[in-house]
Amino acid sequence: MPTTRRPKSRRHQLPISSGAMEEADDHRPSSSSGRPFLSGLCSAALRRKPLGAHASAEASREDLKRQLGVLDLVLLGIGASIGAGIFVVTGTVARDTGPGVTISFVLAGAACVLNALCYAELASRFPAVVGGAYLYSYTAINEITAFLVFTQLMVDYHIGAASIARSLASYLIQFLELLPFLKGHIPSWIGHGEEFFGGIVSINILAPILLILLTAILCYGVKESSAVNTFMTTLKIVIVIVVVFAGVFEVDVTNWSPFMPNGFKSVVTGATVVFFAYVGFDAVANSAEEAKTPQSDLPIGILGSLLACVLLYVAVCLVITGMVPHTLLGEDAPLAEAFSAKGLKFVTVLISIGAVAGLTTTLLVGLYVQTSYSVVSACAITLRWNDKATSRRSLGIMSIWQEGVLCLVIVALCGFIVGLCYRYNYAIAFMVVAFLIAIAASFALQFRQVYVDPPGFSCPGVPLVPVISVFFNMVLFAQLHEEAWYRFVILSLIAVGIYAGYGQYNAAPCSSDPSSIGYHEVPSEASIEMATL
């Protein structure tokens, strides 16, 4: 009598939804399969997160209250990007770059616009799930990349929130001391910080109080916290506009000559410093779950907030470098000192109010993101790619997918090499060769891949725009100081250790159902091709 062989593992053959899979394996350690640790680690690290029907069901939940409109999202991005730094960092960088700091902000803004285009498409692809760059990396690349992105972002947001809280406390005390009856009567340990043990320990009572207060506002509700952010961001924008108009009448155009006193290299170095002044659009991408119509509103919020920030930063840079020669700009409060030198004392008061409002919104949005600029570009390419050619003919050892990854790696390495050559004054020939190789790789990626335009917002010029974004991100990354590289490498090693140790013994396996990848259905032709794989 013939017998039917039982498959070794039915769970890999049945078309189980990702939600059911995760529910069934919720408490099942990934190491229980009996595979060697190293092979299991590699398999888990390279897997991707499928998102399909289960996620779509979560997106259509009726109990999910969506409170944020387009204006709320734009103000959210502006509130996260523009803090007190617009009154401080602009002048600090201008001391080294001169009036060319304007070009630094334009270059950094242009690089961020390329990133934002990729962010906008990915936010349109995943319109109802929070996670931002972590989610995009998990879906498009693999789990270990997503975990590294998550680690870097969380450390950045946590340390940033702590430092911003201390700065906000200091600025708030400075503003209160403008009142005659409080001047000189506020203890230093309340806002400025009292140092002990040779400066190793510094006590600041007001900073944690402010953190608790803003956390309470967030816990009260998205609508209420959005109202606070809208008010503070609007106040901040109005103050910046007033400061710009007040400074326009004090501009001396002779201060703009020479425009780049230390050369274009200092301008590029300045762009790496001010690049992080535009990172607020990540907060918009993380607000997908609260957006009213995320598929259309998120791209507008991301791009709108970024362009508004570019205009505000450039306007402030032109005013501050035109009012005072860049060599005379102060280090701590350059903009306020510039207006004080012109006898405009009332503007310094406005700057203090704007600094408090700016730090408040930055801290509020930073805490909001915790609850829920190259990797994202690679995700945009990967998720737009339809490998239907692989079902028609064999490509030997290297598949189309592998060629695409190789092209992206080449572009990233070339961008990094160009940045290093530029930083250390290596021969211009190396820069030209690397740049040409990057261009060739981008064209190879263009002609070798087949892409499917997603519904909603579509990043123009794929894959050229993401490739250029990766290239310039790596150029800017190469300009960073060695200390930043050391911190990045050390943190990455710690993250990999945590992932390999604790994570692999407590993580549940992901679904391998190919039909659940992506929220939106691929066009019918592509669906047929995928079904034949």
Automatic annotation (TrEMBL):
The keyword Transmembrane applies. InterPro entries: AA/rel_permease1. Signal peptide: none annotated. Keywords: Membrane, Transmembrane, Transmembrane helix. It comes from the Eukaryota. The chain crosses the membrane at residues 70-89, 101-122, 134-155, 196-220, 227-248, 268-288, 300-324, 344-369, 400-420, 426-445, 457-478, 484-502. This is Cationic amino acid transporter C-terminal domain-containing protein.
